Input
Amino acid sequence: MLKLGGTDLEFRNWPADREKLIARVSDQPHRVRPLREGEAYLVKGETPPPGFRCYLAIRSHADLLAGLSDDEMQVVLPDEYDYLADGDVVRLIPGQNRIRVIYRRRSRHNSFLTTERCNNYCLMCSQPPREIDDSWIVDEILETIPLMDPATAEIGLTGGEPTLLGADFFRILKMLAAYLPRTAIHILSNGRQFADPDFAQRYAEVGHSDMMVGIPIYSDVSTVHDYVVQADGAFDETIQGILNLKRLRQRVEVRVVVHKQTYQRLPQLAEFLARNLTFVDHIALMGLEITGFTKPNRRDLWIDPADYQSELYQAATLLAGHRMHVSIYNHQLCLLDPRLMPLAKKSISDWKNEYMPECADCREMNSCGGFFSSAKLRYSDHIKPFL
Output
């Protein structure tokens, strides 16, 4: 698991009025002067060149900062940030001795938390919503996008509920379209705002060539879905939102988190999707992440994946039989019905992806999706390595 943020830093020579700095990391000593002035130079094994906005060094390289003048802003980082590389983007807050790695150029798992607000209150929400003014996040995202590599493969937008940003949601999408036109944009949304035809139309008019909205449906029974998301009427709005998006030829992924409240009707949900939403672009059947609200609700949610393989197999094969594109996320290969293994994907973000001690000698570890780091709280009793 990578550490993306923390406070165990040492800031040197930072002016008292400098509250925050968002900068692209560079390890290129021959950058032209105008570019240096906006970048944080990553000191590794050479005398740092002058003219960069600030200088970063992990503790084991901190002595290399000695050659800088007293007016050069410097940050000494714990050695666990030694993964930082050219093209990454960081946020530095000297008053709090804090760093946040916002973007990693080499990773395929970059995403922006757009807001903590949400109009659902899902039983297993991994980012519990808060009704706060976090509009500063939008400004930070807009400042970060121009610093990112145009060759970035994919960016996610998460929440909370991104669509609650209203006009700011579209500002972010338009900037992504302008600066990252070839980057796949994946938006995690409950889909309810798209029930408004005008909102769906504004989304379609952004015109990015590769956007997809990932929308959860937890049951074919509206009351069950509404119970899981803790919002009356959510099912109807979600379905209408999907219909509006597809009417406008927008790409939609249906996401189903499998847990104790949803697993029994997986086959019926699959039939509902095949009959009514056969035109969606992808369906992801997903394992549970034990974080956020899942922790206090664990008794009502946790079920060993080994115990729902029959329902998972029925659902996946029914969907595939209707020529729908279906994948299985967040599951370990050794727990899956062998017939489902071709559908399994390595979907857990690299910074929170781990393997348990039982996996040490498994020949399939590089192909397996592994575990969320939070799985140490509870994972299957049936993990067995392929030897």
User: Anything to note?
Assistant: The first strand starts at residue 5 and ends at 6. The chain has two domains: 5-103, 110-348. The first helix runs from residue 33 to 36. DSSP finds nine helices and 17 strands in the chain.
